[in-house]
Specification:
The complex is a heterodimer of chains A (about 220) and B (about 210).
Chain A: H1 28-42, H2 48-56, H3 60-65, H4 68-82, H5 88-93, H6 111-114, E1 135-138, E2 157-167, H7 170-173, E3 182-190, H8 191-195, E4 203-210, E5 214-216
Antiparallel strand pairs in A: 1-2, 1-5, 2-3, 3-4
Chain B: H1 2-33, H2 39-51, H3 55-67, H4 69-77, H5 79-86, E1 96-100, E2 105-110, H6 119-122, H7 127-130, H8 132-137, H9 142-148, E3 158-163, E4 169-173, H10 185-189, H11 194-198, H12 206-209
Chain lengths: ~220, ~210
Amino acid sequence: MDGIHDMGGMHGFGKVEPERNEPVFHAAWEGRTLAMQRAMMYAGAYNIDQMRAAIEALPPELYLSSSYYKRWALEIENLVTGLGLADVDEIKTGLARHAGKPLRNLTAGEVPNALTRGSYFRPPPSPARFKAGDRVRAKNIHPPTHTRLPRYARGHVGVIEAIRGCHVFPDSSALGAGENPQWLYTVRFEGRELWGETTDPTLTVSIEAFEPYLEAA
Amino acid sequence: MTQDHDHDDDRAHGSELSEMQLRVRAIETVLAEKGYIDSAALDVIIEAYETKIGPHNGARVVARAWTDPAFKQALTADATRAVQSLGLIDRVGDHLIAVENTPKLHNMIVCTLCSCYPWEVLGLPPVWYKSAPYRSRAVNDPRGVLADFGLTLPADAQIRVWDSTAETRFIVLPMRPTGTEGWSEEKLAALVTRDCMVGTGLPREPKDIA
């Protein structure tokens, strides 16, 4: 989806403003939101790609005007109602009117397991098409659904720097269409290839690109 | 009139905060009543991120790499396995990658599409990492971003930006500051900042902690 979330290379957002002695959370609800997200994913209510897709689907003006954890809270609301895990009315009023569906409820004792990231490695369905050193072009594709190929790389030529294994493919997983494992590569681009001749010649940028995003160049 | 206006602004600000408190409480109540989540488990998760999981973990990894060449080699070969071997973290998730700074190469980490960050070794990302200015500019103006952090690199240093567009996660292995020969791992770890492991800073100098 060519959405507002795909920010690489955009102009006009101003300076980066680090906060001194920043707290882990700026309000108690931020921590509750983060913890709910972790617990719901552990419960199998939705996966990380569905989560990202739901955030990206927020209206652009709402995305830009919401803090990171506010986006998460809105995304949780949209996912649980969209997946039929709760009614809009229940979320609005804070009152559960119907029994829940069976999910793997995370208990306090299981939290240490839940805090470890899962592995996204999957057995490869076929050998990797590219090897380190190969020149590749990021395809000029614009799927209206979730993808992890940033706009700024599309159409540009880079070099395969490393093969990272065969992973769950977010473009499929976000749709609930299965894991559809694909080879993942680090692809390195010259800054000038991406941004033009006036760009800092010392810059190189890499993306982590799934095989379906790439073609031989 | 002015007073009323100010008053309204204050109330608007206050109700924005309480609106989120109420809204999140409503979500939590419904999800808990439906048996999807357990509020006691949420407490444990929050406590872990407030007290256990943070950049002090990454700092230990970097300090070990500075003092133990075999570990450094293992770290750059397979960071997941190497960090696991330290026993700092119960279990390290797959796909952690350490990228090493040299006098000629400076690495910087970003996630332009969301805010992917190596939580297990650095904790939760700071607000600036998740902000539009950082996510937009890191890939086309990293020197400008570094200037916002008060950092100027030599003009001929190569800058490599790693956009975390998949489930691979990156941590920068910064250069060991000079004047730290013979230092213990613990003392070295005190030089390692969060920002230097993201690539938006350099480690502290010995004089900074004297």
